[in-house]
């Protein structure tokens, strides 16, 4: 069996970035991958401005002195001229008047008879955000391959950039398999089950920002499977759930092998040991196991990696972890195991509570949890021992 890290490295080596780019408005760039380094076209701020409401003056200002207040400077106003030996009322975000270099907070002064007085020394530059304090013209704001988030969007927007070059969206074909599957809302019939993996994967892919170009439930019919796989090969990535094991009814496996190749990898992982990786007419193919939790975990670890690699992200499949203690003792099995957990507070301390039944067929465990905790193989963990926790929220879910 191969480790999760070995499989991820294999995917990164095997899959090549698409290399196709487009420009999008900055407000539509969250979740996209930057295709070129982005540099600042101007200083931010473009000129010194006040950090808070107060009084602008020329420093240094010695405690116990006072100055006459000669006017007001609002945010958005062109900078006024401040004569020596005077102060000006100023508001948060306003440009400093010409001749001023210091701002005294309004909480630190008294104003009487048109004069402002302060009782503590104020150094030159206090209360001022200097020109270029945030970014400098020509500075690299974000590197190529950066996955843009809301904070980064704010940084880009602060420089006045209206659009950014990004990798085009990855096109994914999503196929689930089996004559037994019903779509939600269809009348129930004996021997049938409602398709959960398909809608779940569709939601996960949508959260990843991909374009789902084909969505189909494949019947147990080799002719139909062949036709759907040929259509799916026009995408950048094919993802399936179920139908790729060595069973007699696993017709997708045969269909993939007829049009390309397929490898079955046994991964040193629970849940999600079986994973099929291959290609259909040259298009990368990932066949996920059929149990819902196994589908979910292998999507997070491997499909995300493939999508990120295709999009040119510099850290494909990024997996943020946080060390947190377990609320109860736990024993590890023969493989590393991602258990479904949620954070609880006990005596003011955040701990991880595990779902009582870790069966890989229980979708209720995923709906209950807010993340996954990694239990090493053969571990003997006591309550309070620390494990690696990954929050679903940190993965964009």
Automatic annotation (TrEMBL):
<dbReference type="GO" id="GO:0061599">
    <property type="term" value="F:molybdopterin molybdotransferase activity"/>
</dbReference>
<dbReference type="Pfam" id="PF03454">
    <property type="entry name" value="MoeA_C"/>
</dbReference>
<comment type="function">
    <text>Catalyzes the insertion of molybdate into adenylated molybdopterin with the concomitant release of AMP.</text>
</comment>
<dbReference type="InterPro" id="IPR038987">
    <property type="entry name" value="MoeA-like"/>
</dbReference>
<comment type="pathway">
    <text>Cofactor biosynthesis; molybdopterin biosynthesis.</text>
</comment>
<dbReference type="InterPro" id="IPR036688">
    <property type="entry name" value="MoeA_C_domain_IV_sf"/>
</dbReference>
<dbReference type="GO" id="GO:0005829">
    <property type="term" value="C:cytosol"/>
</dbReference>
<keyword id="KW-0500">Molybdenum</keyword>
<dbReference type="GO" id="GO:0046872">
    <property type="term" value="F:metal ion binding"/>
</dbReference>
<dbReference type="Pfam" id="PF00994">
    <property type="entry name" value="MoCF_biosynth"/>
</dbReference>
<dbReference type="Pfam" id="PF03453">
    <property type="entry name" value="MoeA_N"/>
</dbReference>
<keyword id="KW-0460">Magnesium</keyword>
<dbReference type="InterPro" id="IPR005110">
    <property type="entry name" value="MoeA_linker/N"/>
</dbReference>
<keyword id="KW-0501">Molybdenum cofactor biosynthesis</keyword>
<dbReference type="GO" id="GO:0006777">
    <property type="term" value="P:Mo-molybdopterin cofactor biosynthetic process"/>
</dbReference>
<dbReference type="InterPro" id="IPR036135">
    <property type="entry name" value="MoeA_linker/N_sf"/>
</dbReference>
<keyword id="KW-0479">Metal-binding</keyword>
<dbReference type="InterPro" id="IPR008284">
    <property type="entry name" value="MoCF_biosynth_CS"/>
</dbReference>
<dbReference type="InterPro" id="IPR036425">
    <property type="entry name" value="MoaB/Mog-like_dom_sf"/>
</dbReference>
<comment type="similarity">
    <text>Belongs to the MoeA family.</text>
</comment>
<dbReference type="InterPro" id="IPR005111">
    <property type="entry name" value="MoeA_C_domain_IV"/>
</dbReference>
<dbReference type="InterPro" id="IPR001453">
    <property type="entry name" value="MoaB/Mog_dom"/>
</dbReference>
<protein>
    <recommendedName>
        <fullName>Molybdopterin molybdenumtransferase</fullName>
        <ecNumber>2.10.1.1</ecNumber>
    </recommendedName>
</protein>
<keyword id="KW-0808">Transferase</keyword>
<feature type="domain" description="MoaB/Mog">
    <location>
        <begin position="173"/>
        <end position="309"/>
    </location>
</feature>
